[in-house]
């Protein structure tokens, strides 16, 4: 049953030692054994409270390495949003372990921008003991198995609508700004993202003929699926950073364009997961490849 299992997330060495210390004290010391209930309460607090405090202050966006569909996990001071799930392999070997390690026991908002081929990943997530509160696909017509799984879990379904902004956490909102090809604009605090999936150079040129759309293209971070970018589209977006979620390397022409425009470039197949964090005290944001971080704080 959803909620029957609660994950405390990754625990530190001091928590492990303190927990075992309490167990041995209760076991070996008769005087302490009289206060087993209080000791149990302290044990639970040691396991759960530090992680809960961290999650209550953390504002992080994590772009997860996935071959076919861009996948993003957003943690916003205890609220959790997931954009795309990837396929079954990504769900079972990357996403679910990440959620468990992070101590995440519920997804507040789920956004599905992928194709029908990725519905198997969502079905796998819904079948796990991590409930989804609100599910927002780009299309009304879901596969039968996914619809049944969502209905059984009690999740509400609210499809994304063109040019309507949807709040997914207290500091994050998303808007579908174009369909076929699908373009989404994501806002995390003061940082704007443009999500571009499976868009050919010909389609990119067509997008630039839409005078209403052009102002919405400008974003600080471009997140796309690695297709060739036209110089005109890159000029319209004016990103300072770009993230490619794909298996193959981007073309030399696109890479040179990014270099010429002094755009910081990341690729999940090369750099692993990409982390965006917002420092609340200094009001500064940071984009970093987690392959650069091998410490215990890394979430994956």
Report what the structure shows.
The relative contact order is 0.11. The mean pLDDT is 83. This protein is of the alpha/beta class and 300 residues long. The protein has helices at 13-28, 30-33, 36-57, 88-101, 119-127, 144-153, 201-207, 214-217, 231-237, 252-260, 268-271; strands at 59-64, 71-76, 79-83, 107-112, 132-137, 156-157, 165-169, 172-178, 183-188, 191-196, 221-224, 241-244, 264-267, 274-279, 284-289. 35% of the residues lie in helices and 26% in strands. It has an eight-stranded mixed sheet, covered by helices on one side. Strands 7-8-9-10-11-12-13 form a seven-stranded mixed sheet.
Cα-atom Rg, whole angstroms? 21 Å
Which strand order does the major sheet show? 6-5-4-3-2-1-14-15
Proportion in β-strands: 25-35%
**Which class do the helix and strand fractions yield?**
alpha/beta
* Largest β sheet strand count, sense and barrel closure: 8 strands, mixed
Q: What's the number of extended β-strand segments? A: 15
- Tell me the helix content: 25-40%
Low-confidence stretches: none
What CATH architecture of the largest domain do you see? Answer: 4-Layer Sandwich
CATH topology of the largest domain: Metallo-beta-lactamase, Chain A
| Overall pLDDT confidence | 83
SSE series: HHHEEEHEHEHEEEEEHHEHEHEHEE
The CATH H-level superfamily of the largest domain is Ribonuclease Z/Hydroxyacylglutathione hydrolase-like
Shape: elongated
CATH class of the largest domain: Alpha Beta
Number of helices: 11
> Any idea how many domains?
2
End-to-end distance = 26 Å
């Amino acid at each position: 049953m959803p909620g029957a299992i609660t994950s405390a997330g990754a625990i530190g060495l001091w928590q492990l030692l303190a927990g075992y210390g309490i167990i041995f004290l209760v076991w070996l010391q008769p005087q302490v054994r009289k206060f087993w209930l209080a000791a149990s309460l302290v044990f639970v607090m040691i396991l759960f409270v530090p992680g809960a405090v961290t999650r209550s202050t953390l504002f992080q966006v994590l772009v997860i390495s996935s071959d076919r569909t861009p996948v993003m996990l957003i943690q916003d001071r205890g609220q959790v949003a997931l954009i795309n799930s990837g396929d079954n392999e990504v769900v079972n070997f990357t996403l679910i372990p990440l959620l468990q390690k992070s101590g995440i026991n519920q997804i507040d908002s789920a956004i599905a921008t992928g194709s029908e081929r990725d519905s198997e990943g969502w079905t796998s997530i819904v079948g796990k003991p991590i409930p989804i509160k609100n599910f927002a696909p780009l299309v009304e017509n879901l596969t039968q198995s996914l619809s049944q799984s969502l209905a059984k879990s009690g999740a509400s379904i609210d499809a994304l609508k063109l040019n309507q902004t949807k709040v997914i956490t207290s500091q994050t909102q998303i808007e579908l700004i174009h369909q076929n090809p699908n373009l989404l604009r994501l806002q995390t605090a003061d940082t704007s993202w443009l999500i571009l999936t499976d868009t050919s150079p010909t389609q990119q040129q067509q997008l630039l003929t839409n005078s209403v759309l052009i102002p919405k293209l400008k974003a600080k971070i471009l997140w796309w699926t690695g297709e060739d970018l036209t110089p005109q589209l890159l000029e319209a977006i004016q990103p300072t950073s770009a993230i490619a979620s794909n298996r193959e390397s981007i073309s030399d022409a696109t890479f040179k364009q990014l270099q010429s425009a002094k755009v910081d470039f990341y690729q999940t197949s090369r750099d692993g997961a990409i982390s965006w964090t917002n420092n609340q005290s200094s009001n500064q944001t940071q984009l970093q490849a987690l392959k650069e971080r091998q410490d215990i704080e890394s979430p994956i």
